[in-house]
Amino acid sequence: MITSEFSTLDAAGVDRIRTDKQARLDMSSGSLQKSAVRVSPDSYGPEINTQDSGKINLTIAAPSGEISAQTDRIRFKTTDARPDFSEVTYFLTADSFEGLSTLIRDGVEKYGIDSSDAERWIESTSKDTGSKSDYSLTSGTSTGLEVNYDLRFDGSKDQQVIIVHVSPAS
């Protein structure tokens, strides 16, 4: 059922997301159906990028609660044969190691990401904040969806990135 409460991913819906800087996706059933966002069954879905115009307030309704973030890139993973998207990906950014650590700890609290895994990475990386690290934290499932934080840390850069993968819980 399509309601005005949720965003669509057809051309008009993507334009609205880019203009209003608001996206609300319905994964409360455990997945995001293509028909619910007004894309054709064989569609791969759009990539929404607002890096030049500001961040989008993204909300994903989950079976238990919601996932929320401010992001400037949202991607959708699927095949032309799937009726749904196997994954919604968005990007979180921080301007410092401390900011990145705060985002990670927020994910632990909000989504059930493994805290000992997160703290081990933070502790290890804090010893050399000029280092580089690509690391995927153990996913959290407290919302009824699988939320994975894929860390892309490079201490020589001004901006640090977390690639967040949201998928149906397995």
Q: Can you offer a commentary on this structure?
A:
By secondary structure, this protein is α+β, with helices and mostly antiparallel strands. Helix 2 (97-111) runs antiparallel to helix 3. Helix content is 22%, strand content 36%. It is globular. The chain has 3 helices and 11 strands. The strands form 3 sheets. The protein has a 6-stranded antiparallel beta sheet. Strands 1-4-5 form a 3-stranded mixed beta sheet. The protein has a two-stranded antiparallel sheet with strand order 2-7. Strand 9 and strand 10 (145-154) form a beta hairpin.
Strand and helix map with partners:
Layout: H1 11-20, E1 22-26, E2 32-33, E3 48-49, E4 56-62, E5 65-71, E6 73-77, E7 84-85, E8 87-94, H2 97-111, H3 115-126, E9 132-136, E10 145-154, E11 160-168
Parallel strand pairs: 1-4
Antiparallel strand pairs: 2-7, 3-6, 4-5, 6-8, 8-11, 9-10, 10-11
For this entry, give a set of tags:
170 residues, alpha+beta, 3 helices
Task: Give a brief rundown of this model.
With 170 residues, this protein is of the alpha+beta class. It is built from 3 helices and 11 strands; from the N terminus they run H-E-E-E-E-E-E-E-E-H-H-E-E-E.
Q: Point out poorly predicted stretches.
A: none
Task: Give the overall pLDDT as a whole number.
Answer: 95
Please write the string of helix (H) and strand (E) elements: HEEEEEEEEHHEEE
Provide the helix percentage. Answer: 10-25%
Strand order of the largest sheet: 3-6-8-11-10-9
The biggest sheet, with number of strands, parallel, antiparallel or mixed sense and barrel status, is: 6 strands, antiparallel
Distance between the termini: 24 Å
What amount of the residues lies in strands?
Answer: 35-45%
Number of helices: 3
Report the principal-axis shape.
Answer: globular
